[in-house]
Amino acid sequence: MWSRLAIIHYQSDRVIDLADETPFASGDNRLCFRHPDDEGLCIKVLHSGRAKQLHSASPFYKKMFGEAYFDDNRREYAAYQQPAVARNECTYDQHVARCYGWVRTTLGDGLVTDLIADLNGEPAQTLEEYLSEHGLDLLIQDAVSNLALFLRTSLILTKNLMPHNLVLAPNAQGYRLVLIDGLGLSTFLPLAKYSQYFAQRHIEKRLQWFYFRLEWEVSDRSISWRDTEATFRFSGMSPEVESKR
User: Helix, strand, coil % (nearest 5) of the chain?
Assistant: First the structure.
């Protein structure tokens, strides 16, 4: 896990009232609100009591990390501290929603990121939604290729690239895929943090898994994802990537 996992520095002492706001998205652990003062920003807050619930239900060896370990906002903020994000400070928001830090809200601590919008100003469509309507068309194939090139070049570390965690930002070429959740590492031994080789290997494995998942998304799904994923095998790094070491 990245440093400063549980450290929060608020933008100000002001408390943003979200009591009457409706989240535009909701996951198992967090709610996503449009910032009342800036429509281009998103505020992510935890479901009340969620971190405590996850901590209580975790195996004993994870309980030692404390409740903050199960706070998705803190874990995401820590992932933004990875060296690759710092190295690509000016450009990482091409494919990763930019993070602006912490605010106080009436629903608890809020993490502020870019809100990626479509041409009408509404929250952008997820890749999962697009695939269900249009399949893996040429526009998305190009967008996927550009995302892969960005990750291989920047070495920004992510978890598995889930289609519902990627949204489509319109651009002149069609779409730009932007990661809105899933930054960082989920591996127990974070070797990719300390070694360029293991960072490249980590990214190649995540990309191969991503391509594998995309094929399933546009299939007839006669086999469940759980059973399909069990057949995934990492084939190693390509000769092209190996040659750049």
Answer: 40, 25, 40
Per-residue pLDDT reduced to its tens digit, 58-76: 887 788 878 888 899 999 9
In the chain, domain spans: 1-115, 116-245
* DSSP letters for 225-245: HHHHHTT-------HHHHHT-
Q: What is the DSSP letter of 182?
A: -
Question: Which amino acid makes up residue 40?
Answer: G
Quote the DSSP letter at residue 6. Answer: T
Q: From the options 3.30.200, 1.25.40, 1.20.120, 3.40.50, give the CATH code of 1-115.
A: 3.30.200
Alpha-carbon dihedral 151, 153, 154, 155, rounded to 10 degrees: 70
The sign of the CA dihedral 69, 70, 74, 77 is positive
Q: Whole-model pTM?
A: 0.92
